[in-house]
Predict the structure.
Amino acid sequence: MVVPIYEFSCLTCRHTFDVLGSYASRDERQVCPQCEGTNTRAMFSTFAVVGSGEAAEVSSAGSCACGGSCACSN
């Protein structure tokens, strides 16, 4: 069974963390492991798919939902 990894950002302390879970867990408020707050938001993560003899590019914008245009840490 494949379990997706979702990346979250804490809007209180700006810590980013990963959560293993179902698609439904992406829409739930998660507890920040740093400040234990629940003011969190799922982020858009980048990924690459590599096939036999092919390589995919990974976005240099990082995992920030703004596409790298804000001052958040990637």
In short: The CA atoms of residues 49 and 56 lie 6 Å apart. The two ends are 29 Å apart (CA to CA).
